[in-house]
Specification:
alpha+beta; Jelly Rolls; 8-stranded mixed beta sheet; 4-stranded antiparallel beta sheet; 10 helices; IPNS-like_sf; metal-binding; Fe2OG dioxygenase domain-containing protein
Length: 360
């Protein structure tokens, strides 16, 4: 997406609202303010066939299936990581009631007053609790139609003290998601020809860095002019996402955008940059974006699961050699990569490009 030129000062809508929710619900908004307008990119017109089949992984086959069922699930998981960088997970064992409570807690947080939310704004990308709007107001040339809450939940658990039950619900939910991620990473390890716990050990997942990211995308009067989140890939290993029943996630597949239609009670999972690095490019982190609509607000809840902050991530030694499989990425400490991505504009896979070995 190419940004419109000469936007007004970032961080402030015309009526002075800090969060896009306040602006969208002001009752006087009939158009998109100029500092939220994106110009069209030719790729935007290339939306894939709505019947495109997104891979589905049955987690129960990985964790408790027969040897044949588990073998097939590992094969399917590897194929999904290689061809899509994205899959849906069913039979994950997380109760619908917990998912509903977690989504309700996120909704209640976004319903707090402007003053209450400002208590948690934070000032640095590694502040353990941070909420705001757009992505990075210090560098964003055009603002995104999105408010967010980011909370570090592992290895140290943090939580805002509002609304009631947010802390209890998020602690329970994120602990379970951490285990789901580890089970999926076992299967991904084996699909790469590595032993099941290779990624778990190499990435030090006992201290794996986990971030809860709640996103609110309010209804937009002219949705084709605004963007919830522009095309990007995620840092870390796996991002596991749920939403409030409102679609808006799109992923890039074979040069076209695919509208993601979630199966009821499923997790949406995408492989992230550090799976691409560890696999030496065999598995790709998927480019994705969030679009908005004019009818109803969308809430998504993503949990980013990464290595420990002090882990230097590089291609697995077992997947490289001196011949055709030379290392395609240089090692970088996860903390440094995270700071690099979060401190700059959200721009495709530009951060991953910085650790890619030049062919020149």
């Amino acid at each position: 997406m190419a940004a419109a030129t000469s936007p007004p000062r970032p961080g402030h809508s015309p009526d002075g609202a800090t969060f896009i929710k306040a602006l969208a619900e002001s009752g006087s908004l009939t158009s998109v303010p100029s500092n939220y307008i994106f110009t069209n990119d030719p790729l935007d017109q290339a939306v894939s066939d709505p019947e495109e089949s997104i891979p589905i992984i049955d987690l129960s086959s990985l964790t408790s299936g027969s040897p044949d069922q588990r073998s097939k699930a590992i094969c399917d998981l590897g194929k999904a990581c290689q061809e899509w960088g994205f899959f849906m997970v069913i039979n994950h064992g997380v109760s619908e009631s917990l998912i509903e409570m977690m989504m309700d807690s996120c909704r209640q947080f976004f319903d707090l007053t402007e003053e209450e939310k400002k208590e948690f704004q934070g000032k640095h990308v590694l502040d353990p609790i941070r909420c705001g709007t757009s992505f990075n107001l210090s560098v964003d040339k055009v603002l995104f139609w999105r408010d967010y809450l980011k909370v570090f939940v592992h290895p140290e658990f943090h939580s805002p003290n509002k609304p009631p039950n947010f802390s209890d619900n998020s602690m329970e939910y994120c602990k379970i998601i951490h285990q789901v991620a580890r089970e999926l990473l076992k299967g991904i390890s084996e699909s790469l020809g590595l032993e099941a716990l290779y990624i778990d050990k190499a990435m030090n997942l006992d201290l794996g860095f986990q971030i809860l990211i709640a996103n609110l995308y309010p209804a937009c009067p002219v949705p084709e002019l605004a963007m919830g989140i522009p095309p990007h890939s995620d840092h870390g290993l796996l991002t596991i996402l749920i939403q409030n029943g409102v679609d808006g996630l799109q992923l890039l597949h074979k040069g076209k955008w695919v509208n993601v239609k979630a199966v009821p009670n499923s997790f949406l999972v995408n492989t992230a940059d550090h799976i691409e690095i560890l696999s030496n490019g065999k598995y790709k982190s998927v480019m994705h974006r969030a679009v908005v609509n004019s009818e109803v607000a969308r809430i998504s809840l993503a949990v980013a699961n990464g290595p420990s902050l002090d882990t230097v991530v590089r291609p697995a030694e077992e997947l490289v050699d001196d011949g055709d499989n030379q290392p395609a990425y240089v090692g970088m400490k996860y903390r440094e990569y995270l700071q690099l991505q979060q401190s700059n504009q959200l721009d495709g896979k530009s951060c991953l490009d910085r650790v890619m070995v030049s062919c020149n």
